[in-house]
Design brief:
By secondary structure, the chain is α/β, with parallel strands linked by helices. It has a domain at about 5-175 and about 215-240 and about 280-290: 3-Layer(aba) Sandwich (Rossmann fold), CATH 3.40.50. About 40% of the residues lie in helices and about 15% in strands. It is built from eleven helices and 13 strands. It has a seven-stranded parallel β-sheet, sandwiched between helices. The chain starts with a strand and ends with a helix. The structure holds nicotinamide-adenine-dinucleotide. Nicotinamide-adenine-dinucleotide binds near residues 11, 119 and 174.
Amino acid sequence: MKKIVVTGGAGFIGSHLTAELVVQGYAVVVLDDFSTASDENITSLRQKENVELVQGSITDLPRLQKLFEGVDYVFHQAAMARVPRSIEDPLTVNQVNITGTLNVLLAARDNSVKKVVFASSSSVYGDTSVLPQREDLMANPLSPYALTKLTGEYYCTIFRQIYGLATVCLRYFNVYGPGQSPHSQYAMVIPAFIDRVARNLPPVIHGDGEQSRDFTFIQDVVQANILAAKSTAEGIYNIGSGRSITINQLAEKIIKLMQKDLKPIHEKGRLGDVKHALADITKAKSFGYEPEWSLENGLKETITAMSRKAR
Ligand SMILES: NC(=O)c1ccc[n+]([C@@H]2O[C@H](COP(=O)([O-])OP(=O)(O)OC[C@H]3O[C@@H](n4cnc5c(N)ncnc54)[C@H](O)[C@@H]3O)[C@@H](O)[C@H]2O)c1
């Protein structure tokens, strides 16, 4: 049985990925410091067969060196994953996202891991005059968070070139789905909107709402990770849906799907937010990536899961 480590495996994306890897017959070690992991994810991972849950930090290199012994693949999802957090505390975010990623690569290199799949972000593009965004566009990070992801990509490339460690970087475009918390101060837009609409409160939009995003359903991101690991793909790949929608349209869609009569309210725009994001996913199709979830179906699934949990 192949042995896998998922860093940040108790988080939103990591826990879905871990669940699918187990279904596909892999033994998974989850390394997470539980800093933003939900209790629900931690409990459900503890109950799974073939999952070993380890509490620890990617900033602890000796720990990683031991943990990666005999490991075939590493899915590196752990990060402080929010733009506003990185603006408030760039130093800590730098330590976790950059030094932590360097540690993961060093431990992977020293233990002859077959491949590292790195969770990068569409935020590395910043504001571009060209849409959709292709991987060869010049990066233009607008926040410390985006810069840490870009640096992680460069480290992956350098480890490939210098040490021969196989690495692949997936630039996720706004991932959403069941299990994403609406309650954190840094909640993502879809769970935050659904949560408010369910409570008959108007969604709160930052800025004029004309900013647009490419929303990607969690199961498509999970498939992308596994395909990228199994294939010979190396380098940088966009993982999005290939379609975008404005935040105003998104709010309208969620209100309609939830059959409510509400009007969104607007607050000040957020620092570090990009104006538009839309993925060109042609390159990822070369390793078999094909998003299967429409926004409509993904939202329905997310709304159902969130209302089930609220009951
Ligand atoms: N969700 C998105 O839309 C999105 C978009 C682009 C990129 N990403 C990237 O995907 C990855 C997963 O994102 P997510 O949405 O699941 O976020 P998340 O916050 O739910 O998951 C991150 C996990 O990493 C853990 N973690 C944080 N610091 C750690 C440390 N020092 N050591 C070990 N574990 C640590 C957290 O406890 C959490 O469980 C992140 O790297 C994020 O930057 C996410």
